[in-house]
Amino acid sequence: MAARSTARAASLRYSSSARPGASSEAVTVPMARGSTGREDYGSEYLIHFGIGTPRPQPVALELDTGSDLIWMQCACIVCFDQSFPVVDTSASATVRGLSCTDPLCGSGGLPLSGCAADDNAPNSTGVTALPSLRFGCGAYNTGDFISNESGVAGFGRGPLSLPSQLQITRFSYCFTTIVDGRTSPVFLGTPDSLEAQATGPIQSTPFAPSPAGSSYYLSLKGITVGKTRLPFNASVFALKDDGSGGTFIDSGTAITNFPQAVFQSLQEAFVSQMPLPVANNSYGRLCFAISSSTADPRKVPVPKLILHLDGADWDIPRENYMLHVQDVDGTGAGDGLCVVIDSSGDDDFTIIGNFQQQNTHIVYDLNANKMIFLPARCNKL
């Protein structure tokens, strides 16, 4: 059974013929947003694969740093809609089922018999084969799948994730904006130059201790909105002894979530510093009404949003948290600016989602156990 998380192969078309991990040269995989549009800020970023031989079958998998498993719909019994046929494993000459006694399946914590599949991908022009890649076949698939995906490519720390199976110790991505239909790059390995298309300084922060085989946790020390440092210290954002709480970065979650008390304080800080009135009936999101006399909403001054990490201050670009929305109250009265941040409710965790990661080159350096990040023109990389 494959279930969709609320927090959230194959042949890859590379720019190089080198297999990841075989050299220090990075290979680039193009990634497309599942859907685009100014109001469609809940979308995901998809990697397109071909699976099986002799004829590769197309899949579109969500890049998800918050999970470990690679899986797709295969002759599913309970299916969600996707734009092309589900994978037919019987049509591949190289697919084979794996028993749960397989060491890799066991280490991945998969309890079901026939818990994974193993397949090769063909060699052809511009395509690199990745033999013996373990992936899951989702037969009972429930949840919200709205971005044209057919499964998930887990980029987490576990042994079944794509980076682990490719034996790469560094990968990165750079998400283009939600209104940009162009592809986003994923680098498997080390890019030639992090300075390429950079629009600001390179910073780094160590990954925080986390449960084995889990997500990429960070040490968040505090948050500043404009002139206000929110009244919460690092303990509010830290992983608790019982496994609750914590702060992690997740490419498979769309919008950043803060604990309810932090979320409420953040909203109050925006309300006190925005030069616009709060809009009515703005569909549950904090929005500010734009006057009809405002010629360019992009010139309305808004408070900065800064995440204070261990050793780095992440100055979130304005467009990554303040969205211009037409007909903000649903009455046709006018447009608004909306704060695109969510609450995690009573769960007390913090997730940095992909909306806040737009036009930021984010590098996962697993050998050095740190995250490197810098603002960049992602559509130029």
Structural features, described:
It is a single chain. This protein has 381 residues and is mainly beta. Helices cover 7% and strands 33% of the residues. It has helices at residues 103-107, 162-166, 234-237, 260-273; strands at residues 2-3, 12-13, 27-33, 45-51, 57-64, 70-78, 96-98, 116-119, 127-128, 133-142, 151-154, 170-174, 184-188, 203-206, 216-218, 220-225, 228-229, 247-249, 257-258, 287-289, 305-309, 312-316, 322-325, 336-339, 342-343, 350-352, 360-365, 370-375. Strands 1, 3, 4, 5, 6, 7, 8, 10, 11, 12, 13, 14, 27 and 28 form a 14-stranded mixed β-sheet that branches. A hairpin with a 2-residue loop joins strand 16 (220-225) and strand 17. It is globular, with a radius of gyration of 21 Å. The chain starts with a strand and ends in a 6-residue tail after the last strand. Residues 1-23 and 121-127 have low confidence and may be disordered.
Largest sheet: 14 strands, mixed
Instruction: State the separation between the terminal residues, measured CA to CA.
Output: 37 Å
Number of strands: 28
Figure out the total of helices.
4
Q: Whole-number radius of gyration? A: 21 Å
Kindly estimate the percentage of residues that lie in beta strands according to DSSP: 25-35%
Classify the helix fraction into a percent range. under 10%
Whole-number mean pLDDT: 83
Unreliable spans are 1-23, 121-127
How does the helix and strand content classify structurally? mainly beta
Question: Globular, elongated, flat, extended or rod-shaped: what is the shape?
Answer: globular
